[in-house]
Amino acid sequence: MTDNKDKIFNQIKNKLIVSCQALPDEPLHSSFIMGKMAYAAYLGGAGGIRANSIEDIREIKKNVKLPIIGIIKKVYEGSEVFITPTENEVESLYNEGVDIIATDATKRIRPDGTTISEMFPRLREKYPDQIFMADCSTYEEAKEAYELGFDCLGTTLCGYTEYTKDRKLPDLELIGRLTKDFDIPVIAEGGIWAPEDIKKVFSLGVHAAVVGSAITRPMEITKRFVNAIVEVVDSGTCVK
Amino acid sequence: MTDNKDKIFNQIKNKLIVSCQALPDEPLHSSFIMGKMAYAAYLGGAGGIRANSIEDIREIKKNVKLPIIGIIKKVYEGSEVFITPTENEVESLYNEGVDIIATDATKRIRPDGTTISEMFPRLREKYPDQIFMADCSTYEEAKEAYELGFDCLGTTLCGYTEYTKDRKLPDLELIGRLTKDFDIPVIAEGGIWAPEDIKKVFSLGVHAAVVGSAITRPMEITKRFVNAIVEVVDSGTCVK
User: How many CB pairs (< 8 A) connect A and B?
Assistant: First the structure.
């Protein structure tokens, strides 16, 4: 591993990475707001930011000097792979300059008809010093990513592929197997809603963890509180 | 109670009220962002918004048509009372038009040297049809507010006065006593961080509950996750 890769991984070791994303159909969609969100995360002690799109990443860089995991979400017709799905998005992120580029590393067919095992060797050759994070949904996908030469493994897509949609998140069994079996950093991501969740994933030996919705998606947080109210009111157990 | 007061209280019954505030020293300080936060809360199912300052309230009204609990936080030298502390702030909120005006209803001396028991009768006479919410810190303060003629009781300041700073929040004992003893709406506010907390306060019979930081203050949420990581890493129990 190069010195620069070491440096970045040391910077995020045992740190919280806050995902600051709001897609065009979300109420907070705005690079200005994502920049402020990243700044709030920084002030709160975050050690890194995960962000989507060149526009958001540029704005976030103006607000904080933390390592950035960059992605580009792009939906192509006919493929379910949308997190940095093709070499075009990787190239954009590389040219913008982000510390870590994350890409879908599931077994699913990508928009150009290839799989990650065909795409990644080309990326590795073209960008040998770039840190790549594999967004996986299963143990087998993580193993494949490890063998392909990814620099770190993420559980980002566990629960979000057709074949993992029933998993309870965070998937502690998966996270524990990954930290046990692979000697590269494992980054827990997906379904971390409470401080108790994050204690569990760190006790399993992850290098860092990404939390998004629980911090930066007020609509999603509101829904959880509203659902809790509906549940208790409908149960008929309230004293008034 | 007037028909209009009934209407507002029916609108917020069994609802989540999301507090959308960012003071000048907070990273998200921006009326534009608070308007978007309120919109996100609305999309998530919130039944009301609590907001600070005329500027934020105006922007929020452009974004959502939900009942608003309005406050003006203003620090005056020599007094610890800062939530809508004097008749001037009440007048500003009344002139702007908010469904509910909340004011500090603790026993503490206000900036003009009076107490709530001196100020409130004047407010009640001047604005008979305005709904007033009493932000209290103790049972005795809530009892006083009830007797003064406040329209609803909030636990907002429990934990935030010198004589309640050791209370564990949300203070379920206090909330339970208020809903049991007073026949006006009790609004739980303060220290509600998780859906489990809100289930508990609704099971005690509150009319509505206000959640702020857990939804709209990403810096504070980040701190809780970061503290959890530090705790587990320092404990030395992680497998790596």
Answer: 169
Nearest CA in chain A to B179: A240
Radius of gyration over alpha carbons of chain B, in Å?
18
Tell me the per-residue pLDDT of B32-91, one tens digit each, with 9 for 90 and over: 999 999 999 999 999 999 999 999 999 999 999 999 999 999 999 999 999 999 999 999
Q: Quick check: B136 and B106 in contact, CB under 8 A?
A: yes
Residues on chain B touching A28 (C-beta within 8 angstroms): 36-37, 40
CB contact under 8 A, B40 and A16: no
Q: Is B239 close to A46, i.e. CB distance below 8 A?
A: no
Contact A225 B43 (CB under 8 A): no
Task: For residue B25, give both structure tokens.
Answer: 């020293």
Return the SS3 of A184. coil
CA distance A216 to A226: 17
Taking the model in full, what pTM does it have?
Answer: 0.97
Q: Return d(Cα A68, Cα A133) in angstroms, integer.
A: 12
- Which residues in chain A are contacts of B226 at CB distance < 8 A? 16, 44-46
A98/A57 Cα distance (integer angstroms)? 8
Contacts of B6 (CB under 8 A, 6+ apart): none
Chain B residue numbers touching A179 (CB-CB < 8 A): 239-240
A229:B194 CB<8 A = no
Residue A237 pLDDT class (50, 70, 90 cuts): confident
- Burial (CB < 10 A; 0-12, 13-18, 19+), residue B129, is exposed
Q: Which of A159, A160, A157 is nearest to A187 (CA)?
A: A157
Structure tokens at A215: 């911090």
Smallest Cα distance from A109 to chain B, Å: 34
- Across all residues in chain B, what is the average pLDDT? 97
Give residues with Cβ within 8 angstroms of B236, minimum separation 6.
Answer: none
Which of A202, A216, A220 is the best residue to mutate to test the B interface, defined by the most B CB atoms within 10 Å of its own CB? A202
Q: In this predicted model, what pLDDT tens digit does every residue of B22-42 receive, in sequence order?
A: 999 999 999 999 999 999 999
Kindly report, residue by residue over A110-152, the tens digit of the pLDDT.
999 999 999 999 999 999 999 999 999 999 999 999 999 999 9
ipTM higher than the 0.95 cut: yes
Query: How large is the average pLDDT for residues A13-20?
Result: 98
Q: Are B19 and B210 in contact (CB under 8 A)?
A: yes
